[in-house]
Specification:
The complex is a heterodimer. Chain A is mostly helical. Chain A is built from 10 helices and no strands. Chain A is globular and about 75 Å long. Chain B is built from 8 helices and 10 strands. Chain B has helices at residues 48-55, 78-84, 99-109, 116-125, 141-153, 171-188, 199-205, 223-227, and strands at residues 8-19, 22-33, 37-41, 63-68, 71-72, 85-88, 159-163, 191-196, 208-213, 216-222. Chain B has a 6-stranded mixed β-sheet, with helices on both faces. Chain B has a 4-stranded antiparallel β-sheet with strand order 2-1-4-5, covered by helices on one side. In chain B, helix 5 packs parallel to helix 6 (171-188). Classes of the chains: A mainly alpha, B alpha/beta. At the A-B interface, helix 7 of A face helix 2, helix 3 and helix 5 of B.
Chain lengths: 264, 229
Amino acid sequence: MLSRWIEHQVWLGAAQAGVTMVAALVVVWLTGRLKLGMKKEILISLGRGVVQIVLVGFLLTVIFSADMWIAVPVILVMIAAGSVMTIQRVRDIPNALKISALGITAGAGLVITLMTFLGVIKQDLTSIIPIGSMMVYGAMNTNALMMERFRSELTAHAGQIEAGLALGASPEQVVSPYTRRAVTAALTPNINGLRSLGIVWIPGAMAGMVLTGENPAYAGFYQFVVSGSIFVTAVITVLVSIILLRKQVFSPAEQLLLRAEDGQ
Amino acid sequence: MTESERHTFIRAENLTYVVEGQAILSAISFAIQSGERVAIFGPSGAGKSTLIRLINRLDEPTSGTVWVEGEDYRQMPPRVLRQRLGMVMQHPNLFPGTVADNLRYGPSARGEALSDQAIRALLEGVDLAGFEDRQVGKLSGGEAQRVNLARTLANKPEALLLDEPTSALDQAAKAEVEETILSVINHQKVTCILVTHDEAQVRRLAERVLRFEEGQIVADGTVLEVLGA
């Protein structure tokens, strides 16, 4: 209906976003009536979301007209922002930001470079930047889950960890059960995502391709490229991060640096 | 062990531990002879547990050091130090699995296997014969603490550091664990440092007392000299 009244594509987009915002504000009003205590947080998130994505949209129109190498700084900025957001709840771990940045750079950097070099991702900015952003975003979420879980496992089991150290075990030995749990917990949503691909949900890349008239079979293959690459990125990111992270929670004299939650 | 066979086993030199500007221990110095049974005695918050954690190097002294048989412990690999000075914590913190799994943990961490016969002997030593296959979740508080003691002994330590080993137990379990500790230290003649706030326990288990107050040693002598008759 909107497209009958508005011809210019950008103004049409603004109107569509406006309608969505009205729907979101109705939901905000409802949460306020239900006293869920989330009104402020939702309003801020909505405001940030719309401003950020619209600004990025305008920015991308400029970026897409530039040389292909501009993808490198753009993705590095995404990695930096993703690394900062990853460590919100694990700031007490020494060098958490550095570890997160190294993990995401290793995962996303390696997969984006390899896939682009092999031509699996089209070598143009309209493919590299959106798909790259999905990988960085996936790596950020997986890494945040892993780091938070690792930290909470260590503080909840500080007594057992110190008992292990006191028995002469190495830091790697004493944290190995908690390392496994943190990595498993972080990767589970990714594994579930792969498992349910196409059955429970049709992800954005495939949906977008089908909407723009691509062959659905090709769109299916390409969606697997995206989802599979996101999964590989996430695995490399968490493995690099956990290897670096477990060294940070012990001093050179193999003392646990995080304190127990119950103060024991 | 006769008096002539004794030698300085542990010597703390100006051990200081400061947290957020507050001194928990202030320049503590003392020496403990091999085979000696020493109680670190004092009220809660006096720095007793901090001291034993520093000796096991689970925490790092702000300044000062500990000498173990004449060797500065900062020059010793922490894992070797911790195997030599076996620590029994206030809470057993047993690992999930069976009693035998827990006893194997220390030797296995060093790549050594603990034989079934050695496990049986260790459990007999803490009066838990036949408990090898028992799941740790099914143990009583006193049994869990005795498994904790056996798990430490499986490492064949030269000294035992006991940090309030009975303070989390009821009276009956406390008596059981004390009896076991006494039997072990009498039988194995290991050097023993016991942290406790329980004066009666000091009289039952120790021969020498270091009385602590506000992070400092305020008395050092035999049980009779420090606590009286």
